[in-house]
Amino acid sequence: MDQVHPKRQNGTVEIKTTGPDSEQLTEEQWQAIINNDSDYNNQFFYAVKSTGIFCKPSCKSRVPRKENVLIFFTAQHAISAHFRPCKRCRPTGQRLPDQEWVSAITEYIDKHYDKKLTLSILAEACHGSPYHLHRTFKKITGITPVAYIQQTRMDRARLYLANARDPVTDIALFVGIPNISYFITLFKKETGLTPTEYRQLERSKTTRRCLFDGSRE
Fold first, then answer.
1. Which SMART domains match (predicted)?
2. What does the longest C-alpha to C-alpha distance in the chain come to?
């Protein structure tokens, strides 16, 4: 890649990956997590760095990658480290407000838009059913999760096209759309222009700005 790519500004809260309140994961705790062992529910909570969510050991959600797991002995310690309680297992004993859950979902999309993302994958990662996630997300945001994924990818694609020199085929991959024909169709539907036309338009704007600024000196 020719240039440093622009970063998406999404206003997310940085999750603490280490700290005085988190503990080293032991093999016993890991086995409790992968076996959904409810006997350990009162002993610890585990948080997942990639999703920003924390759970009880008995949670039925997909087992996370071991290197992404942090251990906390109280729910409050996990919350203080900016993790949200799981919508499925409710580690605090209370239902996570829909607004907070949707915030966690949008943060996950903002961080993983370049990966394969379906409603099922999103629901599994964010600890809810596909139907409930779809319905709740649309209720809070006014758009569906799939529409938000596409919007995020197109926003990122516009930044790449305007600021980077990479081929359109590479940019499609950067934003999680390996099918170049689909990427072009989706981009034109969103902007009214093909990716190449959009890039040319942005470059002409930049040239005009430079000429205008130069004439004022």
1. HTH_ARAC (SM00342)
2. 74
Catalytic residue among 55, 59, 86, 89: 55
* Those residues with Cβ within 8 angstroms of residue 169's Cβ, 6 or more apart along the chain or in another chain: 180
Residue-range domains of the chain with CATH: 22-85 (3.40.10.10), 98-217 (1.10.10.60)
**CB proximity list for 136: less than 8 A, separation 6 or greater:** 98, 101, 102, 128
Helix extents (H) in the chain: 27-34, 75-80, 98-112, 119-125, 130-141, 145-163, 168-174, 180-191, 195-215
Helix, coil or strand: residue 54: strand
pLDDT level of residue 209 (50, 70, 90 thresholds): low
Model pLDDT for residues 87-136, shown as the tens digit of each residue: 888 898 887 788 988 998 999 999 999 999 999 999 988 888 899 999 99
Residue 186 CA to residue 5 CA, distance in Å, equals 21
Q: What tens digit of pLDDT does each residue of 19-39 get?
A: 556 778 999 999 999 999 999
210 noted as active-site residue? no
Residues forming a β-bridge with 84: 53
CA atoms within 13 A on the CB side of 147: 9
